[in-house]
Design brief:
About 40% of the residues lie in helices and about 15% in strands. The protein has twelve helices and 15 strands. The strands form six sheets. It has a five-stranded antiparallel sheet, sandwiched between helices. A two-stranded antiparallel sheet has the order 1-2.
């Protein structure tokens, strides 16, 4: 077909001409053209003023894709913010918990370095120029007493709460302890004989030599069976050498074996210049101690409740026996020689152990309570004897009455 003829035909149709086409189509071709026209009308860009369905779906898809992209972007931003927040929390300072700061262990990533612990005291407030110094601990005043106020040539006064030495008169010098030795005798016996009701029988071989030596005695008889408790009071109150030897033989088999235990205990208590030879304190040139050591010994012995009970007793009646049907009565040599145990300043002398030999002269280790405070006083080598003025007791009165608390 000639292109010029087609254009002429189209022109005629537009102008409403009725000129027939030069070449007519066959039936099959005409039917194909008809179907093409129907399809063209069906998918025409506009029909009855409505937009095409295909175009509407395409726009909806585009909008959905855009929304998904926006949401994905928001999720990425939110994730980044959460990661940054978590990192800041990990790097932050110790967090306040309630009203106090928790401790945080900060580890150095370099190998070989140990983690350091940050405490609240190490955290300084912002803007603080210098840390505030903690107030200095208060100093407890220690009253010092003059050595000239005692008759004894050696003495020491100790406040037990803080071990403050309030009086020192040759306290580190060697002295003969005489019967103050029995503090150690009683302590070692208590530690080795826990059953205070155990019965022990004294023998003539134990007692007779002591009478010959002029030792102080509790008054037990040969063949008498008494309890460990009875013997402990016999050691401490009347200062009985008979009670000492009975305990020593029961524990160690001999006085020498028991004295070894006494010296071992002295080392355990760090008594730096003390050595025992007898269990009763009878004189021996190699039997010695110091007032300072004896004060330490008494302080430690008082920690034992059994010892404290015996040491602070004024008197005691032993278990009745066939030799003493009503029980042997024992009285403290210290309290027997005291007019009173309560002084004008309220001091109460709770207990004590006297001592005397010709070489040691008058001695005393005592415990007093003043305004709730406990004090130990040890004095040695005061002139006199059992028949003279008791200057060891007078020293205790003088020293304790001067304490003002």
């Amino acid at each position: 077909m000639n292109p010029d003829n087609l254009e002429s035909e189209e022109s005629k149709e537009k102008t409403g001409g009725s000129q027939a086409p030069q070449n007519e189509k066959g039936p099959v071709q005409a039917e194909a053209v008809q179907k093409k026209d129907e399809l063209s009308q069906k998918f025409s860009p506009e029909k009855d003023g409505k937009k095409p369905v295909k175009a509407s779906r395409k726009g909806l898809i585009i909008k959905c894709v855009a929304v998904v992209i926006v949401l994905a972007g928001l999720l990425v931003v939110l994730a980044i913010q959460l990661l940054n927040t978590g990192k800041r929390n990990e790097d932050a300072s110790p967090v306040a918990s309630g009203s106090s700061l928790e401790q945080e262990s900060v580890s150095n990533s370099k190998p070989g370095l140990q983690a350091e612990t940050v405490t609240p005291e190490e955290i300084q407030p912002a803007g603080t120029a210098e840390p505030t110094e903690a107030p200095a601990p208060s100093v407890v005043e220690v009253q010092k007493l003059s050595p000239d106020t005692v008759y004894s040539s050696h003495a020491i006064l100790v406040r037990l709460r803080d071990h403050a030495v309030m009086l020192d008169k040759g306290a580190a010098d060697r002295i003969y302890p005489a019967s103050m030795t029995k503090i150690m005798t009683a302590l070692v016996a208590i530690e080795n004989l826990p059953d205070l009701e155990e019965q022990i029988t004294l023998t003539a071989e134990q007692i007779n030599p002591l009478y010959e030596e002029g030792a102080s005695m509790a008054g037990f008889s040969a063949g008498e069976t008494v309890t460990v408790r009875d013997l402990l009071y016999g050691v401490m109150l009347p200062s009985g050498a008979d009670a000492c030897v009975a305990l020593a033989d029961r524990i160690a088999g001999s006085e020498a074996g028991f004295v070894e235990l006494m010296n071992q205990k002295a080392q355990e208590l760090a008594l730096s210049d003390t050595h025992f030879v007898t269990d009763s304190g009878l004189h021996d040139d190699n039997h010695y101690s110091t007032c300072a050591d004896l004060a330490r010994l008494l302080e430690n012995a008082l920690l034992n409740e059994t010892f404290r009970t015996v040491f602070t007793a004024h008197d005691y009646t032993c278990t009745p026996t066939e030799y003493h049907p009503e029980g042997l009565y024992l009285a403290s040599t210290m309290f027997q020689k005291m007019d009173t145990d309560t002084l004008s300043n309220g001091a109460v002398i709770e207990g004590g152990k006297t001592g005397y030999t010709d070489e040691a002269q008058l001695c005393l280790a005592s415990l007093a309570v003043i305004q709730g405070e406990e004090y130990i006083l040890v004095t040695a080598h005061a002139e006199g004897n059992h028949h003279t003025e008791q200057f060891n007791i007078l020293d205790a009165y003088s020293v304790y009455s001067q304490i003002t608390g």
